[in-house]
Amino acid sequence: MTALYGATHRRVSVLDIAAAKEQGEKWAMLTAYDHLTAGIFESAGVPVLLVGDSAANNVLGYENTIGITVDEMLPMVRAVVRGTQRAMVIADLPFGSYESSTTQALETATRFFKESGAHAVKLEGGTRVIPQIETLVTHGIPVVGHLGLTPQSVHALGGYRVQGRGGQGEEMIREAKSLEAAGAFAVVLEMIPSDLAQRITSSLSIPTIGIGAGKACDAQVLVWQDLLGMHAQPPRLAKKYVDLRSIMSEAVSHWVSDVSTGAFPTKDQTFN
After folding, report:
1. Are 202 and 177 in contact (CB under 8 A)?
2. Are residues 31 and 136 part of one domain?
3. In the chain, fewer beta carbons within 10 Å around the N or the C end?
4. Looking at the structure, do residues 170 and 254 belong to the same domain, yes or no?
């Protein structure tokens, strides 16, 4: 029996995540933003679902993740929780909802717990968010950290660039250890060199979740639209497992043609 896939009568918990690290068990985390896809992903074996602020540009049409609000994300988290029975559901804290103070962070995270049923939250940053993480953990809210490319800071970083090269690497290792010491139960490593990700992973007792960080990480996360080929040009860090965009387009085009020619509906879709 594995740590994350053995039990069927309850949600995956932070204890299961810790046990997976101890046992060397790798696992997958996938984004989800609605009831239907969340259920599909859980049934496919995904133990952890992330309702990411990536919904901003993948669902709501924003240019990047910065614009999405707490009120826009809460219904998505609720839908994902309702659509699953076993998966742990993690909610991103959106930009501007936690940075200014520990009080703001606690108020935002509390809303996600009380109003959406989230099981954990994720926030971006290293040393600057240590007080927020400590406060949330003290109040019983599990936290995932996020280092490397932090999309909420895309303007400050000068674009979507690999982080942690050169002298930045040692600082990132220190920040990862600080996140663990503050009480984070996992940390996302995004777009950093694979050798640095390996060093961080081996230096922590909590799991690392990689996205564009190589195979040494304890877990991997992707945006589901990238995984399933919904974008014409998926990012390099993603592998497109199916061209769902083309499949959907072809099916809808076929239906439109059937409607225009009178081939739909048939007697099978007609009531007497």
Report:
1. no
2. yes
3. C
4. no
Is residue 123 domain-shared with residue 219, that is, in the same domain?
yes
Asked if residue 9 belongs to a domain, the reply is: no
Assess if residue 4 is contained within a domain: no
The structural domain count of the chain equals: 2
pLDDT digits (tens, 9 = 90+) for 119-151: 999 999 999 999 999 999 999 999 999 999 999
pLDDT in tens, 70-124: 999 999 999 999 999 999 999 999 999 999 999 999 999 999 999 999 999 999 9
Verify whether residue 63 is a known catalytic residue. Answer: no
Catalytic residue among 124, 175, 180, 190: 190
Instruction: State the residue range of the domain holding 255.
Output: 244-272
Q: Are residues 177 and 104 part of one domain?
A: yes
- Looking at the fold, whether 179 and 253 belong to one and the same domain comes out as no
Is 5 a residue whose pLDDT tops 70? no
Residue 8 within any structural domain of the chain:
no
